[in-house]
Amino acid sequence: MEQDIRFCTLDGRRIAYASVGEGPLLVFGGRWVTHLEHEWEQPAARRFYEELARTHRVVRYDRIGAGLSDRELSASPTAESEAAALARVVEACGRGPAVIFACSCAGLATALFASTAPERVSRVVFFGSYAARHDIPAATRTSLVDFVRTNWQLASQMLAGLMLPHASGDEIAAMSRYKRLCAASDVAAAFLELDLTADARHFLPSVNIPALVLHRRGDRTVPVSHGREVASLLPNARFATLAGDSHLPYADDQRELHRALAGFLGSDLPVPQENSSPLTRREVEVLRLVAAGLSNREIAASLHLSEHTVHRHVANVLRKLGQSSRAAAVGQATRAGLI
Q1: Number of domains forming the structure of the chain
Q2: 3-class SS at 231?
Q3: For residue 270, is pLDDT > 60?
Q4: C-alpha distances in Å from residue 162, one per residue of 153, 191, 248, 299
Q5: Is there a single domain that holds both residue 118 and residue 221?
Q6: Do 83 and 152 reside in the same domain of the chain?
Q7: Comparing C-alpha atoms, which of 214, 222, 234, 179 is closest to residue 32?
Q8: Domain that includes residue 330, residue range
Q9: How far apart are the first and last CA of the chain?
Q10: CATH number of the structural domain spanning residue 303
Q11: Do residues 153 and 19 both lie within one domain?
Q12: What CA–CA distance (Å, rounded) separates 311 from 200?
């Protein structure tokens, strides 16, 4: 797959966004500092996005001030300006309500956008997110921001080590170089200041859209307790912890993450009309999770069904498709365009 990079504007400022894949729209909220081209060159990141692009149109964008977007900040960023940028990207994609994937600090603007424009969001995934960094003393937040502004090279190395705690020296150096390519020190500092001081606790309770809150147990950048807090504030959220300690979704083992996403996003996938498929809507949903590698027990947990019910659905699929194994049924259904 190759990404398609395009541009839209917000208040005369250019926003770069990239898309890959076809299907329901899945937009990644604006993360700290990113660069669409350089991130796509990272094998682990590219594999992660391409896996999601098997079933969705995956869209990423660079915040104004970073990456391929306009690199100058005309004013200090705010939660409102970041929510407006997210809204503009969703509008530019023109595909109806979107799934928003909010990594880390992207949860702040995503929650504000979803609370004010719920008709434009179908569901939200919060990964490694937080409502507020109230656990960091004000003096420490100020020191971190000043450190990024005055010594961007050393600060980027330190933060890379937090995001990838078990990475090799070469991997941390590569992540540090990547962050410095994304934005200048003053821009990185301005975004860090917003991300460390903004507070989403007062509007998260008004986000009634279905939400999945995922957090790695050993995350050192944002402790898992923050993920629990986000889930507790959302009225329609499921919370799940994942193994690992990386703050980046495309690092650490991917199998558990993609299983959780398959269960949550499965109902967003296009389903053949009943008169064109021998399978019911629920059978298609179950078979997609079988194709994702989930066991009957894992499918039952994802869809809130009993394991016996899942077993019955799988048996019905095998019978209707005339196959004797799960793998053969998946292959047959894929070739026939049923999943």
Answers
A1: 2
A2: helix
A3: no
A4: 15, 17, 10, 33
A5: yes
A6: yes
A7: 179
A8: 274-335
A9: 20
A10: 1.10.10.10
A11: yes
A12: 41
Provide the CB-side half-sphere exposure for 276 (13 A, CA).
7
> What is the distance between the alpha carbons of residues 78 and 195, in angstroms, rounded to a whole number?
9
Alpha-carbon span 238 to 132, nearest angstrom: 19
User: 267 pLDDT band (50/70/90 cuts)?
Assistant: low
Q: So what's the pLDDT on residue 301?
A: 79
Residue whose token pair is 């193994």 = 243
Question: Residues with Cβ < 8 Å from 221, sequence gap 6 or more?
Answer: 104, 128, 159, 162, 163, 247
Is the pLDDT reported for residue 248 higher than 60? yes
Judging by beta carbons within 10 Å of its beta carbon (0-12, 13-18, 19+), is residue 30 exposed, middle or buried? buried
For all residues of the chain together, what is the average pLDDT? 91
Of 223, 243, 268, which one is at a domain's C-terminal end? 268
pLDDT at 274: 47
Answer yes or no: do 324 and 193 share one domain.
no
Specify the pLDDT at position 275. 52
Is pTM beyond 0.85? Reply is: no
Question: Do 280 and 215 share a structural domain?
Answer: no
**Which amino acid is located at 244 in the chain?**
G
pLDDT score for 276: 65
Tokens, residue 67: 């990456």
